[in-house]
Amino acid sequence: DERSCYEVDTPLLSKRACIDTHIDLFEVSISEKETGYLHSSPEYAMKELLSQGSGDIYQLSHVYRKNEQGSLHHPIFTLIEWYRINTSYNAFIREACEVITLFIGPQPYETLSYEDAFLTFLKLNPFNASKEELIDCAKKRDIDLSSDSKDFILSQLWALFIEPHLGKKALSIITDYPPSQAALAKIHTRKGKKCAERFEIYYQGIELGNGYHELDDPQELKMRLDIANKERVSLGK
């Protein structure tokens, strides 16, 4: 509120499902003939407002994600989501850190690229390493990932052997993810490599949030959603 970001309240229930390969939604019977979905984030509805000229907006909302249960996950949780129209990518990252410190107190920040994190903790370059090299890295740590895709292997190596080290002495800001992990972020070039203009913030080995420079190319957006849908089908979803 102090920074002129306008609070909005969008519906929890939607007639259409958002598309994310690994997030499953709760279905709700709207009527005998119609099914709806509880949202996994207010993202789509907020983007509708942005497209109508709302300007900078934020929302503090309950969100619902099926099959998420564990020490760090719950099927219902509270999420803050916000969007800035006229700000730089780096300024937005700083603001995200500042929001987090409202809850955990002042913290120093450190920035590490996705590539540098792999090189630091696993001595592997995730952009250049072959699938076989990644499988071998996992096997040396008693994990067999030989039947999985390269992206899945990267995500498993990240979760098991990199994440636990992040955010120990400062908030860790991870940037420049591979294009295959871009979600709905724009792609830019860093050190001659195409990277997603996306970040995640870690504290004590736990990811507290993520954000990105939003993709605004409708053709590219449709292509990514089509790919996500095909991946869901391949997983039996």
Number of helices: 6
How do the SSEs run, as a string of H and E?
Answer: EEEEHEEHEHHHEEEEH
Q: Say how many strands there are.
A: 11
The parts where pLDDT drops under 50 for at least 5 residues are none
Report on this model:
It is a single chain. With 237 residues, this protein is an alpha+beta fold. Helix content is 31%, strand content 26%. The protein has six helices and eleven strands. It has helices at residues 43-51, 89-104, 114-122, 131-139, 150-162, 218-234; strands at residues 6-7, 13-14, 27-29, 35-38, 57-64, 76-83, 109-113, 171-177, 187-190, 193-203, 206-212. The strands form three sheets. Strands 7, 8, 9, 10 and 11 form a five-stranded mixed beta sheet that branches. Strands 1-5-6 form a three-stranded mixed beta sheet. Strand 9 and strand 10 (193-203) form a beta hairpin.
Keywords:
alpha+beta; 5-stranded mixed sheet; 3-stranded mixed sheet; 31% helix
Give a quick precis of the structure.
This protein is 31% helix and 26% strand.
Chart the SSEs and their pairings.
Layout: E1 6-7, E2 13-14, E3 27-29, E4 35-38, H1 43-51, E5 57-64, E6 76-83, H2 89-104, E7 109-113, H3 114-122, H4 131-139, H5 150-162, E8 171-177, E9 187-190, E10 193-203, E11 206-212, H6 218-234
Parallel strand pairs: 1-5, 7-8
Antiparallel strand pairs: 2-4, 3-4, 5-6, 8-10, 9-10, 10-11
Helix pairs in contact: 4-5
